[in-house]
Amino acid sequence: MSQRQVLQVFEQYQKARTQFVQMVAELATRPQNIETLQNAGVMSLLRPLLLDVVPTIQQTAALALGRLANYNDDLAEAVVKGDILPQLVYSLAEQNRFYKKAAAFVLRAVGKHSPQLAQAIVDCGALDTLVICLEDFDPGVKEAAAWALGYIARHNAELSQAVVDAGAAPLLVLCIQEPEIALKRIAASALSDISKHSPELAQTVVDAGAIAHLAQMILNPDSKLKRQVLSALSQIAKHSVDLAEMVVEAEIFPVVLTCLKDKDEYVKKNASTLIREIAKHTPELSQLIVNAGGVAAMIDCIGSCKGNIRLPGIMMLGYVAAHSENLAMAVIISKGVPQLSICLSEEPEDHIKAAAAWAIGQIGRHTPEHARAVAVTNTLPVLLSLYMSTESSEDLQVKSKKAIKNILQKCTYLPALEPFLYDAPPNILKHVVGQFSKVLPHDSKARRLFVTSGGLKKVQEIKAEPGSLLQEYINSINNCYPEEIVRYYSPGYSDTLLQRVDSYQPLTK
Amino acid sequence: MKCFKKFLFSVVDLFRKKEYDAAVKIQSWFRGCQVRAYIRNLHRITTVIQKWWRSYLGRQEYRLIVKFASCAMKMNFYNAMAVRIQRRWRGYRIRKYCFNYFYLKEYLRAVSETNDAIREALEEFAEMKEREEKKADLEREEKKRDYQARKMHYLLSTKQIPGVYNSPFRKDPDPWELRLQKAKPLTSQRSKAKPKPCISLSDWLACTSARSFPQSEILPPIDRKQCQGPFRDITEVLEQRYKPLEPTLRVAEPIDELKVARGEFRRQEWMRNVNDNMFLPFSSYHKNKKYIPLMNSSSKYGPNSYGSQHFRDENPKKWICDKDFQTVLPSFDLFSKYGKLYSKAGQII
């Protein structure tokens, strides 16, 4: 009987521990409780429970620790300072799958806050055990381990290199091929985080054979998976021409274009980022995209979304047009310029407007045909107003000024240039008048139109320093017309005429 | 005389001098003529020689000039012809290879056609996706309504009593009524528990079941002569061949399964329960109350028999006889049946 009583004491104690740890784990799910828990000293209480005999208590204690560390970085630092990590790493290797999941969750929660904490995790040798967990049978364990590795690799290139040196890349590629969707997502996200830092890391990921599997998964209907896969491919392709070519050789076109029509906004954004990263390297890659009809799909995609989602698409059009004039012409005939000018006028954010202005400048700068195509859509006044407005950020002003200059230097479409005579500041006026002086000597109809629309009058009113370039342009314009007309339109001519009337003495017989 | 001679001599001398001078003059003039003629001849001859020499040199130079002029003319001609050829060739090359205007126009046309094709394809794709989503939504709605109808099947109207959805004041019954008529009543059993992921004996047994072996279709008959004899029915044969394993009870369950299951259950209950006391219904509450004996009826060396076995202070030494008191009247009957006569519902207060 006394034996039973003794055992009862132990059972009560075990019950009490279990209850405590479960309650803490449940309380830790709500953020408002965490402050109280922290002040009550929950870390030091949870730490010995990690070493408890009963596996359930260990797992629940690990889960509670993970939730606490997840909340903010002070608690995560407390976890690191409390020397909990070595114990977690040691038991990660030995315990059952629930414990492994909980321990990997703790490592992930600690590692996500800052590079120093992630470095602490790497220093206590967690990477090898996490990589061993990646080979486990249970998909939940693999998912937790891949998630932790992804968060560690996210911060900087050294940590990524450490993760890759532990041999994670081939295992992550194997994880991508597993049937569970959540595991695929996390593995794709981890590969994306690894390869984003440097070309060597991206090359390591590619050597593990990731591209083929990632390319296959673009067809998967799950949107979150598509987000991660497209993000991974774009991080790989952005570093160099060879990597971009390898991504393209995986035959992602034209499948990627269907992702541009997806319902999920972030899938569209990541797909346009991927196409942008491929297009920006060489004219041949841009040509490939244009031949596959990518420009039209991108323009439709830009038309259907708003805000930051549009930004990679706008930049892609700019990169394609920047490479050569044939590609710029291809962008023009795909009706890109009206869409870009809509973006320019509609978007509230300055950086998106700046990108649209840059893209339009790249399209219009090649030949007079291109400049005409841009000028016809009435974009130039919008650009001018953005340049002149005091509310625009400096970046926006610089980009719109460059765009205006580049387009004006090739523009021979006079109806679009005329409004510039009236509102433009002097440094732009110089270019406008220069263009007029190039076109007017050769075209008589344009000369007539120039006079009747009041342009000649405006030109006469421009004050220019003698000997400056502006004065030369004005002189060459004046030379296109007979002297009487020039005098007629010069300012103050009516006054001089009236003076002559005043001073005229009629001949009296 | 001498003077006259002197005078004569001087006049004669003078005359002689005059003649002498005249002769000298004539001779010198003549000699001069001679010499001049000679020199003139010489000049003439020299001029002829020089003339010929100069004409020779001049002709040479003229030949050179003509040669160069003809060379230059030829070269100009050749250059002009070469320029003509080069001009043609350069124009052709630029127009064909570097900037082929028609090819560019073709290319742009092809690009715009591809764009249109891609735009159409993408729109179709988007439409298809939308249709699929709508269909999935409709199916989900249908399923939900079916499930609800199955749960509410008891609201169906009977012949005597019109149901909730079949009010007599309506012209036609509510669509829910029709749905309820079609629905099968929902049984309380949970359908298809999720399969356990752990690998155990039952899984092995399950994998030998009829579903897991590939059922071969009847293959087309091989062209040979018919086998003789009455054959058994093919379905019977297949049934026998693919009969699932029916293990004995001893083999089917592990030996300590019950203990394991009980232990698991108990542990889960411990984990889950905040309070470990059993929730007891009030009427039986007093029955399970633990009896706490009175302090003065229990002693250190075991319970006292007073209060548990007898309620009167007994002193066997003072007993006259060893018979107990007899009851005269029986106890009141009704209260003996208290709590046992009424229905179960009445027990719970």
UniProtKB/TrEMBL annotation, chain A:
SUPFAM superfamilies in the cross-refs: ARM repeat
Pfam family, one: Arm
Repeat is among the record's keywords: yes
GO cellular component: acrosomal vesicle; axoneme; extracellular region; microtubule; sperm principal piece
Localisation per UniProt entry: Cell projection, Cilium, Flagellum; Cytoplasm, Cytoskeleton, Cilium axoneme
Keywords from the UniProt entry: Cell projection, Cilium, Cilium biogenesis/degradation, Cytoplasm, Cytoskeleton, Flagellum, Microtubule, Repeat
Keyword hit for Nuclease: no
GO BP term, pick one: sperm axoneme assembly
Function: Important for structural integrity of the central apparatus in the sperm tail and for flagellar motility.
Protein name (database record): Sperm-associated antigen 6
Gene that produces this protein: SPAG6
Automatic annotation (TrEMBL), chain B:
Classification via SUPFAM superfamilies: P-loop containing nucleoside triphosphate hydrolases
One annotated GO biological process: mitotic cell cycle
Domain of life: Eukaryota
Subcellular compartments: Cytoplasm
Gene3D superfamilies: 1.20.5.190
Keywords of this entry: Calmodulin-binding, Coiled coil, Cytoplasm, Repeat
Name recorded for this polypeptide: Spermatosis associated 17
Species this chain originates from: Ailuropoda melanoleuca
Lineage of the organism: Eukaryota, Metazoa, Chordata, Craniata, Vertebrata
Gene symbol of the encoding locus: SPATA17
